[in-house]
User: Fold this.
Amino acid sequence: KKFLEDAAVVANAPVTDTIWRLVCKAPQTAASALPGQFVNVLATGRRAFLRRPFGIAAADAGTGEVTVMYRLVGRGTADMAALRPGQDRISVEGPLGGGTFSIKPGKALLVGGGVGLAPLIFLAYKLDNPVVLIAGRTASETFWNEFFTAAAEKIYITTDDGSAGIRGFAAAAVPRILKENRIDRIAVCGPTAMMRTVAAAAAAAGIPCEVSMEKRMACGIGACLGCTFESGTDGKRYKVCADGPVFDSREVF
Ligand code: FES
Assistant:
């Protein structure tokens, strides 16, 4: 079930130079959202603003608040950054997405890079002390750990340039993390290359892995077919918005 809510902006501020965090009051969405789902947001009254999908970073049924994190990339997100807390409203359509992260007993390893870490925050707080791997190109991209510390048992960091944590790509650190922790399953959200390589590392270790696919989504509800992709394994066509965004990695890579 999805809702269309006229939501007050409660907070909207930068976390870093390029990553912003927006909190809005969308109680129906907040009460029913599951980790991995997204909202389609329209900044009402702003010029040429299209509805855009954002992964849900937090949803609190008690306060009715929904949080998203976004990267400032162009006009649309610049308009979003101009929204004033306590004054502006946005139209929130959600929660969207048929494929969500599994919430099961056992130990999960969450692996994310960039703004892909946002939906993993929501997931982390629904799980029992997950292990988290935050991957960035450089130290300044690893600020995300502050959002995970209260939920995670352990946080690993990798950077491509070695300026923080373990040097190298996320997937290269996975075997070591699997050796140091008893991990039952892996969830990944980030650039496709990261998801592909982490999924391969999971498969090599015989551990189930879920990935959250990124595609430009126009309608968000399975109608425009703009987000379809062909599975690399079974050749079927899937819609990221309706069948996903979360898939078992074996359906995708
Ligand atoms: Fe339209 Fe997925 S975004 S079908």
